[in-house]
Design a protein that fits this description.
By secondary structure, this protein is of the alpha/beta class. The protein is built from 9 helices and 8 strands.
């Protein structure tokens, strides 16, 4: 494993709603902190009038790639745009799916090996339908795979979390494994494990990772206190990390140890970002050493 982080680690200040730092500034700050491997968070730049929504979005991705190349950065994974299926009108869904299409092509431009995509959830006239959700996700991911194969990008399906009163496909490990098996394309598909999502579900993460095994291709490493998806750094929440690190070693995980901890920095003032991002890199190195030396 190599320590990695999402570009979203360097976006906002003082809990503002707007992205303050450009993607290039995020890349530069991460490199200054020690990172050589990054995760492009296309989702951040697919809102409002940000770059992925614009007609020249491909030029923007190529420009970021050229800048990152000059710094020796490797893009091992990326995160696609996402949306809640139930909340989108037919017209809105067309636009959301276009943004996912752009994410797939963008990942190919960056030469990212894996693109993380959220599964969706289907509700019927009673409430939640696992069967219809599975069917719809098989259709969607097969469609994504057709495009991804043209750009040499693998698709990692991310585990979700539920809230009080609603179900969500992809929260149980069984959902991920059943979808993976029905897609029946291990060269194209894998699983991304989000530790924060799993903690909210009160999942035994070490046991879940052992079940996933070699299907695991990407990680979103984040902590929380078991109440909200806080996206803070490990050891600042209530996740027990040592069993997770041991499980990663046991299953022979070959991907990167990728932080998704934007709320660890989002409240900071400008001058603190570089110091805290540097701390996150050192924390990642410490945790990888723990994993490598675990018994």
């Amino acid at each position: 494993m190599r320590v990695s982080t999402s570009t979203c680690i360097h976006e906002k200040v003082l809990w503002g709603k707007d992205i303050v730092f450009t993607c290039k500034e995020a890349v530069q700050t991460c490199v200054n902190a020690g990172y050589k491997v990054l995760d492009m968070n296309f989702a951040s730049y697919s809102r409002g009038t940000l770059p992925m929504t614009q007609p020249n979005w491909e030029y923007w991705v190529k420009d970021v790639k050229e800048f990152a190349d000059s710094l020796g950065v490797e893009w091992q994974q990326a995160h696609a745009h996402f949306y809640r299926w139930i909340k989108a009108s037919p017209e809105e869904k067309v636009w959301h799916e276009e943004l996912i299409r752009r994410s797939i092509i963008g990942a190919g431009i960056l030469e990212a090996k894996w693109l993380v995509i959220h599964p969706g959830t289907v509700y019927d006239d009673t409430w939640y339908s696992q069967a219809e959700s599975l069917k719809a996700n098989v259709e969607a991911f097969q469609r994504y795979a057709e495009l991804a194969s043209k750009y040499n990008v693998g698709i990692a399906i991310e585990n979700m979390f539920e809230g009080q009163g609603y179900r969500r496909f992809g929260a149980p490990v069984d959902d991920l494994l059943e979808l993976y098996e029905q897609l029946n394309d291990p060269e194209t598909f894998g699983i991304c494990w989000d530790t924060g999502h799993a903690h909210l579900q009160k999942i035994n993460q070490a046991a879940a990772l052992r079940r996933i095994g070699r299907r695991l291709k990407a990680l979103h490493i984040a902590d929380n206190k078991g109440e909200k998806d806080d996206h803070i750094a490990p050891y600042f929440g209530t996740i027990e990390w040592e069993p997770i690190l041991r499980a990663l070693k046991e299953i022979g995980y070959e991907g990167d140890f990728t932080f998704e901890i934007h709320n660890f920095t989002a409240g900071l003032a400008h001058g603190l970002h570089e110091k805290v991002v540097r701390f996150s890199y050192e924390l990642g190195e410490f945790m990888i050493d723990l994993a490598n030396n675990s018994n």
